[in-house]
Structure formats: structure tokens, C-alpha cells
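Co-fold these.
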Amino acid sequence: MAILEINGLGISFGGLRAVNDVSFSVKPGEIVSVIGPNGAGKTTLFNMISGVYLPSDGEVKLNGENVTAKAPHLLAEKGLTRTFQNLQIFQEMTVLENVLAGFHLSVRPSILSDLLSLPGAKRRSAEAREKAMAFLEKVRLANAAEEEAGNLSYGALKRLEIARALAVGPKVLLLDEPAAGCNAVETEEIDELIAELAQSGIAILLVEHDMKMVMRISNHIVVLDHGEKIAEGTPEAVSKNPDVIAAYLGAEEEPAHADG
Amino acid sequence: MSANSKWVQLAVLAGIMLVLPVFFPSGYYYRVGALVYVNALSVIGLVILIGYAGQISLGHAGFAGIGAYACALAPVHLGIHPALAVLLGAVISGVLAILIGRPILRLKGYYLAVATLGFGILVSMVLSNERGLTGGPDGMAVPDLGLRQVLRGMGLKLSGGEFWYIANALVLLVAIWIALNLFHSATGRAMRALHGSETAARTVGIDVARYKLQAFVISAVYASVAGSLLALQNGFITPDVAGFMHSVEMVTMAVLGGVGSVLGATLGAAILTLLPQVLTVLADYEQLVLGLIMILVMIFLPLGLLPSIAARIRWRGV
Ligand SMILES: Nc1ncnc2c1ncn2[C@@H]1O[C@H](COP(=O)(O)OP(=O)(O)O)[C@@H](O)[C@H]1O
Ligand SMILES: [Mg+2]
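Predicted complex below.
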């Protein structure tokens, strides 16, 4: 059974129909990729699913429950979290603290014991710290744990966002261009990490520009163009689809007009 | 590392507090020192609100006013001990902060600044206009705390200046300890996270409105207690304690010292409390010099004094 179901999702910005009538679903352990030219509406779709934008139409179901337009922090409680295409890092916190913030829900802080540094609060923080270090190892940032996050390279921050999202303990993880700006080696590492996460049962919704990576790791691909779903299916089926080829060629031929 | 640095900071500060009186030329300076500590107390509240949670308030003197007038009014009208009045003021400020914080913390940037500004003005207007109760702009007397007499009975004779120097130093140390605890806690991380990116904070499950409100309430309580102590040590209070200038002074102290740093804020409070005393020789130009210093600090040390200096030292040291 699908853990994430998108039915007829759509949104308008003024006159612009950024996403229109998009439906698909993701099962636990599955990697579903959303591809499409720049401006196709991929990030906007993620923003609606994760509660950042209020959709004008359609619904989002998580584990069968309608969660459309629920606040992002409530979605996180239900096991849905994400990373961002344009980095959203807690710049002035250390790398470790960024991941620790991801443990917010499991730590369940109590204001009084935090103000007075009571033993319970300290213990919970220490436990989170240990797990956070494990996630930093996973994305190979353990060495930078005590550095201020703002000082890290772009590729490192991309991985930090993944570690922070993992700290939430997600059942559904939305990754918006996790390998953008990363070199070939880093891309391969992220690639392996995503596959490993899916294997552990997390449902992954991925936006990625690196087509080789998408074709290699996706179970299912959804193609967007001008906000519309123009195709979906297995990697092979999608790569042979004439509409998809036309959308990509069209976008390359007249990039200035691609966004309308 | 974090826990150690907390105790090191507290120990250094306690050491400075202990040694400073050796250099006081007269008993009057105990009063000045006590004033520095009281100002630092409210500024540390603002460090939690501005530095941790990234929210602005230009009306926090309103809470100081509530704390101050609680100490002036409650002992007379409710018959409670002034020490309990400090607590009462803190509770009233906290509850009021919850009530007004809920709606106005949805606002951002200058909208929030203007809304908090409005709150501060409202409090100072009420204090000025309720002449029957508060004596209006002329102010009113504040009952004595009575603790000094108790200490004298136990054989410890302290001047008023000495007593308040010690009392405020102790309260400030506790307040700093709490602020540093918060900084390194999950609650503090949630506040700092939403400061960095509200969107990302939400996606990791942080209820942004809730943590903004907590920061607002804590800072209100700090300001309230500072106002109470100010009233008690002066034995007299006017609505100026809740005035706009006092709110601006608090924010300026925080920004000057370094709004993200608890010790920086203490330094900022010290400088801006002491500077007017030093600048009295310049009489008419005092405000001008203060303004100039502020502008220069913001241009050349935008992080505030202490963090900028610390960053430079580290940079050269490496
Ligand atoms: N908040 C917004 N306001 C107005 N237009 C927006 C907003 N967010 C996205 N858009 C528009 O929606 C379209 C899709 O953008 P986006 O989802 O970022 O595309 P993609 O991620 O596929 O490159 C673009 O034309 C973009 O300008
Ligand atoms: Mg995008």
C-alpha cells in the first residue's frame, strides 16, 4: 500500500498555473523521482506536499490520512520531512547542532528542565548527540561536527541537510536536488545513501537533474512539464516516451521561453 | 565542551564581580555597579529573544515597568512582601507576554518592531495616566525590601550600595546560568533554528510559533525582574522605566555588546551604563557621542563588540 498519495494537486500564483492536476503515489522503500525542465513545477510540488505552500486543488494523503495543507511541523510528526533545493541551513549553529535540531521531536524538550539544565534534559541531549554523530558519519561530516555550518562548502551543506532530515526519523523523505553542486564522487555517495535509505523502508520522493543517477536508482519516474504530469512509469518506459523527449528537447531549444 | 565553557564564563564573570569593588574610589560606585547588573539582566532577556530566536522587541521596557510598579503597588495595596511582589510582577509580565505574544509574533521584521513598540507605549501611558494609583509622571515611592535589616540582625552590616551590588550580581549570575543552559538545550536549539530558517525548522518538527512565544515570555520575565530590582534599589520609580527610551537603550546595549552572546550583552550593558557617567564632562554632547559610538560599532563591528573581538583573536590565533 502507498504511504504517500497525491491526488489532483494544483496551485496558481496569480495568473500562473505552476502545478496542475498532478497525481501519483509512493510506497515504503520505493524511490520515486520527479523530473522535468527548469520551472516545470517540481519544487512547487514539493512545497505543497510538505505543507510549505497551500495547494489550490487536490489532496495529499499520508498513510491514508488526508494531510493536505497541514503545517510542516505536524507533517514532520507524522513522519514526512524534506531537504531544500536552495539550502535552508541553520547557518549560525554548528554542524552537529544542525543535526541535533533534527532530533527535536524525539527529544521532546521541556522548557523548565532545559532552563535549569535538569538531568533528564541533559540525558536526552546526550543520547541525541550520539545518534547525531552517527548520522554525520553516514554523510561523512563527522570531522566538521563542531564547525559553524555557515563555513561549510555547498556540497557539504547538501549532505548536512540530508543528515538533519534523517534525524527526524522520516517514513517519507522528499529530496530536492540533493546532488546539485556536488562533484562526481559526492554524487555517487549520495546516490548510494539514497538507495540504502530506501532499502531501510523509507519512501523517497526525489527531484534530481543528474539523469544518469535518476535512471539508475529510481523505481518509478513522474515527468512534469509546465506544471502538468506528461508521463510516468519505469525509468526505461519514461526515457523512451516521445512526449518526454519532446519536452526536454523543447526546453533545450528555446530555454528563454521554457518558463512561459 | 559546551558545559565546561558555561562554567568558565560564569566563573570569570563572578571573579570580575568580586574583584571590581577593590577599584571603587567611593561607595557611590557600588550603586553604579548594581545598575550595570540590573541593566545586564534585562539585556540578557533580549539576547534570548533577539540573539537566540531572532525576534525584535522595541517595547520590552513595558515589562520592566510592570515589574517595577508591581513592587511599588503590591506591597501597599495587596499587603504582600516586596520580594513576593517581584514574583507577582514576573507572573503578570509572563502572562501578558503570552497574551500579546500570540498575535504579534506572527508579524515579522519592522511590523513586529512597531507592534512591540505600541505595547511599550501603552504600558508607559497607563502608568502616566493612572495618577490616582501610580502618582502619574511624578512617580511614586517603593517600599524597602527589608532584607538588609535582616542581614544586619544576623551581624552582616552592608550599605545600601553594597547590598544591591551583591544582590544584583547574584541574580545576574543565576540569569546568565539559565540563559547559557537554554542556549545549549533542545529548546534553545529550536529557538536558534527558527532564527536561522523558519521553513527548515518547521520541517524538522519545530512548532515555530510556540518557540517564538517561549523566547518572548522568558525575555519579558527577565525585563520584569530587572524593573523590580531597579525600583527596589532606587526606592522610587517613574513611568520612564517603561518608556520608549528605556526600550531602545535595552536593544542598543544588546546590539552593542553582541546580541548572540550572553557575556557580550553584559559588556554592552556595562559600557552604555558607564559611558554617560564618564561623558558628563561633555554635558550637552553626551547623546551625540553615544550615537556616534553606536554608528561606528555597527559599521565596523556588526556582530557587536565581544563576538567581533573574539572572532579576530581566533582568526589571528589560528
Ligand atoms: N512563490 C511563488 N510565487 C510565484 N511564482 C512561483 C512561486 N514559486 C514558484 N513559482 C513559479 O512556479 C513555476 C515552477 O517553479 P519551480 O517549482 O521552482 O520549478 P522547478 O523546481 O521544476 O524548477 C516557476 O514558473 C516559478 O517561477
Ligand atoms: Mg526546483
